[in-house]
Amino acid sequence: MEGQGPLSEEMFHSFLQLAVKRQASDVHFEVGYPPTYRVFGELLAAKYPPLSHADTEAIANFVLQAPGSGFTPLDFREVDRSYSLPGVSRFRASIFKQRGSWGAVMRTIPFQIPEFESLNLPAVVKTIADARRGLVCVTGATGNGKSTTIASIINYIIQQERLHVVTVEDPIEFIFAGGKGLVIQREVGSDTASYTDALRAALRQDPDIIMVGELRDREAADICLKAAETGHLVITSLHTPDVPRAVGRIVGLFPADEQDGVRARLADNLQAVIALRLLMRADATGLIPAVEALLATTTVREMIRDGSKVNDLRTYMDQAGADLGMHSFDQYLYRLHEAKRIGLDTALANATNRADLERRIMMETGGRPA
Questions:
Q1: Domain named Bacterial type II secretion system protein E: which ranges (predicted)?
Q2: Which of 1, 129, 277, 318 is a plausible cystine mate for 290, CB 3.0–4.6 Å?
Q3: Banded pLDDT at 189 (limits 50, 70, 90)
Q4: Which neighbouring-strand residues pair with 35?
Q5: Hey, which bits of 149-264 come out as E strands?
Q6: First and final C-alpha spacing in the chain
Q7: CA atoms within a 13 Å half-sphere pointing along the CA-CB vector of 119
């Protein structure tokens, strides 16, 4: 508050503790607004006066001067960093400047890595976690569970087998501990200069599995494909809304004259694509994932190699792929609605083809549900 000195570290921590208590996914610290929580998709303001310039600069200092951060507020205009509050939670902090003031958004990351069942993920995810070579992509918009799903897959693997995992993250989110496997976790900015540098180094670090926090550019994508081609399992994330566009995004990272070759490489090495959307439960007590899942069968590989048939992947998932556990978003939304886990409005609002899903629900129920 203006005139009363900047926010104390103790008060900052109390806001973070409240975020965990409220099951907030994120907490916002921005000048002119009280600390604000995102709880089950909605923004809820704390009962606290609007934050001042001094308050948010203090918060930036708390995060960036934490041990191992390697930053001070004068070094940058935006940066992502991990932050840990012992006994409470870890956080992914996005520190930035806006209109000359500092701001921060803190995403809660639990110390305990959840298992597939507690995340309400379908059985096909465990099938995907059994892969030991090739490329696995987890895609979806920010805040829809990509990092948590990837962490659950890796944690499942290292509990089962003695394998060496190298992760490259910006920033490190979940901490892997225990199990049979050996894990190296490297953070871009503090442990390595870039994804590309860390990926090149990872290939010389005797990995069985390489986890890449986000596939951002052509060079990183090329190294990931090379790692998959040489017998490693590569797990990464993308910011695309569904499976077909995830495939298109990877190919699109490369120049046009290279894309035919990239489609062939991707077709040969892709193992699976998982797309995620977090939706409000029917009882409004929390969120549940809708999942689109693709497994790379011989037919899928041929469709990717062709290029013109990528948009047909959704139909394949629903029909020929259904026996293997594949499904499109609309098929999965139908199942969630049928099981009364999400409401009709939620299902239709998140459908790829709203009219088709509404028609199917009406046909199966004999009329529009209430």
A1: 203-217
A2: 277
A3: confident
A4: none
A5: 164-169, 182-187, 209-212, 233-238
A6: 48
A7: 27
Structure-token pair, residue 240:
């695309």
Residue with tokens 């298109």: 248
Examine the fold and report which residue of 109, 138, 172 is the final residue of a domain before the chain moves on.
109
List strand residue ranges (DSSP E) for 197-286, in order.
209-212, 233-238, 270-280
Q: Nearest to residue 200, comparing CAs of 230, 183, 216, 224?
A: 224
What digits encode the pLDDT tens for the residues 224-280?
Answer: 999 999 999 999 999 999 999 999 999 999 999 999 999 999 999 999 999 999 999
Long-range contacts of 167-171 (CB under 8 A, 24+ apart): 167/210, 167/211, 167/212, 167/213, 168/192, 168/195, 168/198, 168/199, 168/202, 168/210, 168/211, 168/212, 168/213, 169/211, 169/213, 170/80, 170/195, 170/213, 170/214, 171/80, 171/81, 171/82, 171/92, 171/93
User: Encoding tokens for residue 308?
Assistant: 């013109």
Domain match, 246 and 296 both: yes
Closest CA to 60 of 31, 89, 39, 88: 31
Exposure string of 113-130, with b = 16+ CB inside 10 Å and e = fewer, is bbebeebbbbebbbebbe
For residue 309, what is the domain's CATH number? 3.40.50.300
Q: Name the packing angle between helices 218-229 and 195-202 (round to 10°).
A: 10
What count of Cα atoms within 13 Å lies in the side-chain half-sphere of residue 172?
Answer: 20
What b-and-e string marks burial along 53-69, b requiring 16 or more CB atoms within 10 Å of the CB? ebbbbbbbbbbbeeeeb
- Kindly state whether residue 3 falls inside one of the protein's structural domains: no
Strand 233-238 vs strand 134-139: parallel, antiparallel, or unpaired? parallel
The pLDDT of residue 67 is: 62
| Cis omega (within 30 of 0) for bond into 171 | yes
Asked if 179 and 202 sit in the same domain, the reply is yes
Helix (H, G, I), strand (E, B) or coil at 267: helix
Per residue in 95-108, pLDDT (tens digit) is 999 988 999 999 99
Better-scored residue on pLDDT, 3 or 341: 341
Task: Specify the DSSP class assigned to residue 3.
Answer: T
pLDDT, one tens digit per residue, over 152-164 is: 999 999 999 999 9
